[in-house]
Specification:
Oligomer: single chain
Radius of gyration: 34 Å
Helix content: 25-40%
Length: 226
Amino acid sequence: MARSRSEMRAIARRKRCRGLSTIDVLAGSGLTLMTMGTVFAFSQAQLKALATQSSYAQSQNVTRTAIDLMTRELRMASLDPTNLALPVSTTLTCPGVKQGIVEATPARIHFRQDLNADGALSGPGEDVTYDLSEGQIRRTDGAAPPLAIVDSVPAGGLAFRYFDGSNPPVELVAAGALSAAQCDCVAKVRLTVTANVPNPNARIATPIKSVAETEVAIRNRSLLNF
């Protein structure tokens, strides 16, 4: 029985529509796996970068918070509204100033101020020391035990530099610690805090370094900032 022309065309189309061979399936699967691997690797890299940025931001917040606290307190050093709490300097270099800075070294500062104007130095925040010990920046308030405010601080991670009230300021430098006469002349202080945060990527041993720095003028001794 003779086939019609339309039937012949349909048979020809069916012959041309072959299925996928094994090679075609393997090649398609390989391309799919390669694409998925690339997407996975990119996602992992993005997640690691995000974790690193988060750790850095966290360390920045910690160091900046410590700097802000020290700045607020140090700015009020030698405050004595009643003229009863602090002795007056009699040195030839800076006579007449209130002796509110007790100790000043590159990594430690001890200062006093009469914040509540009671003529004594027994109130909170009136006899304060900041120092670095065993990787921690500590704040000591009077006779209270030291309180750690920043962890993971390397050697040299807390640094103080001292300047007088000259214009431009002259840095006061001494071996070990400033003398009593130099302490009386301190009008401005530069603070630097460095913290090392463990890297969230376990394959990278180098910690994430965060540095915060500021400059503060002691109000009772300097009317000008840096």
